Every structure is written in C-alpha cells, then in structure tokens.
C-alpha cells in the first residue's frame, strides 16, 4: 500500500465520519464545526486528485465563507434561553433511512458496474505536460477567447451571483 | 486509487446528505446537508476530471460552486426573514401553504 492510498483511506474515513456528524449531531453549532472539517477533508481529496486550485477555492469559499454564513444565520435565528425542544429529527426518519440506503446502494452499483466508469480506470497516470500546471490549464479553459473555453458559462455565472446578491438584499431587508 | 473508490465515497456522502435533508427539522442543518450533497457531486466531477485527463470537470466544479454560493446566500436570507415574521424556523411549523 503506497502513501497516496493510505492518505486516501484516512481522509475518506474522516470525511464520512464528519458527514455523519453533520447529519446526526443534536447541537447545530457542532454540526457546523463538523461541516468545516468535512470541507477541509474534501479539499485534501482534491489535492490527491491533482486539483490544487479547486482545493484552495474549496477552503476559501466553503470552509471560509459558507460555514461562517451558516453560523451567522444560526446566531440570528436563535432565541436566547429557549432550548430546542424534543428530538431534532422528524417522525418518518426510518422511511428516509431505508430510501436513502437504497439510493446509495444503487448509485454504488451503477458506479462499479457502468462501462464508462470502469473503462477509465486505466488512465490513472495522466501527467500534465511540463510547464503547464493545473492553474494555467484552468485559466485557459475559463478565459481564453480564441480556444475552446468556458467564457460564456463564466459570464452567466457572474450574472447568477449578481442576481443572488440583489435577491439576498431584497429578501433580508427590514422594512 | 481506482476511479470507483472515489465514486463510491461520493455516493456515500451524497446518500448521507439526502438522509440529512429528509430527517432533520432545522433548516440550517438541511442547508448543510445540501452543501454536503453538492460537495459529493464536486468530488465525482474532480475524480472524473483526473481520470479522463481533462480539466473540464474542474470547470463544472466552479459553476457548481457559484450556484451553491448563490443558493446559500438567498436561502439564509429567506430563513432569517422567516424567523423575523414567525419567531421560529422549525420546518414542521412552516405549514402556511397546507391545502
């Protein structure tokens, strides 16, 4: 077992464990902290997959911004002194558990037997050409006006962000 | 590691996220579970991107990140707004649209 495999298993175990903590813990603040751990571990997986830039963005946006936003919303929606009553799950939790187990098993079955997924296993050693790293490749794919690139989806994404900002201001405004 | 290992991990994370959305009563935890599911999808995107030796999958991760950020911002604004009017955010209490 080489080092990358060992690191993958360590990260995978922590990842699944923190996901279970996010879903299962009673205290929402603890769930949010487990969420930070989950995002950091996912960034570790991205580094393992040679996607350093995605890993950095993951840390910045998810572990930084999104979790802090969720914690702020938690702070704003909490009445002091009122402890959350009864159990945090609803009554049909076992039905949901059965359905989700079926869903997970079917996805895993599809991922392990699909010819598309199985056929790509061989090309593990895809090395980038010298001088071209991950960030350069992503930059070319994002912005290049002449070559094959994602300029138009990128612009549309900026429009989505603008709409989200305006929408959040309008919804969250006190009137 | 083979591609299927990453895909299986992604599937497990996604299923855990679905469980969280379905069983929890706090909308904030539901939000976290949605983020978890988006992360699972991103994970499989990056895994495919690596094993097909192309960066297109990472582009899709960017777009998913954008949509996720927008969704979080608007959703949390809605939650805070609901809390202002009803003084509770329990999803079982939000039955104003019941037929």
What is the topology?
The complex is a heterodimer of chains A (175) and B (99).
Chain A: H1 3-24, H2 28-48, H3 52-76, H4 93-113, H5 115-119, H6 134-143, H7 151-172
Helix pairs in contact in A: 1-2, 2-3
Chain B: H1 3-23, H2 27-51, H3 56-86
Helix pairs in contact in B: 1-2, 2-3
Question: How does this model look, in words?
Answer:
The complex is a heterodimer of chains A (175) and B (99). By secondary structure, chain A is mainly α. Chain A has two domains: 1-87, Four Helix Bundle (Hemerythrin (Met), subunit A) (Up-down Bundle); 129-175, no CATH class. Chain A has helices at 3-24, 28-48, 52-76, 93-113, 115-119, 134-143, 151-172. In chain A, helix 1 packs antiparallel against helix 2. Chain A starts with a helix and ends with a helix. With 99 residues, chain B is an all-alpha fold. Chain B has a single domain (3-93), classed as Orthogonal Bundle (Helix Hairpins), CATH 1.10.287. Chain B has helices at residues 3-23, 27-51, 56-86. The longest helix of chain B is centred in the last third of the chain and has 31 residues, at 56-86. Chain B is elongated. The mean pLDDT of chain B is 88. The chains are: A mainly alpha (175), B mainly alpha (99). Chains A and B meet through helix 1, helix 2, helix 3, helix 4 and helix 6 of A and helix 1, helix 2 and helix 3 of B.
Structural class of chain A: mainly alpha
What is the tally of beta strands of chain A? 0
Give the strand content of chain A.
under 5%
**Percentage of residues in DSSP E strands of chain B:** under 5%
